[in-house]
Amino acid sequence: MTPLTQGLIAGTAFGAISVGLMCFLPFPDKRAALLGAFANRFGVGLLIPLVHTSQPGWLVGAGVGLLLSLPSAIITKTYVPILVVGAAGGLLIGGLSRGWA
Fold this sequence. Notes:
Elements: H1 3-22, H2 30-47, H3 57-76, H4 79-98
Helix pairs in contact: 1-2, 1-4, 2-3, 3-4
């Protein structure tokens, strides 16, 4: 499977999971919040398999997840849940797509 295909699958899955986790929470503009969350998590999942470094996959994934989640956390002032889900999802995607060592 190509890295692009892995990224598209991982991004779609991570985005759907994030939307599923958020769909029961109250938001002033729920549609915008869910679309924004999906787009952010899709980007995390898409980029991790495409990044080529000599670092372990799980480390690259956690770093990309944190880095791309940080703007949303700053804007919403909801740091812990956004950053933890971003880092954990990135770590898992990085480990599965690029390896654990």
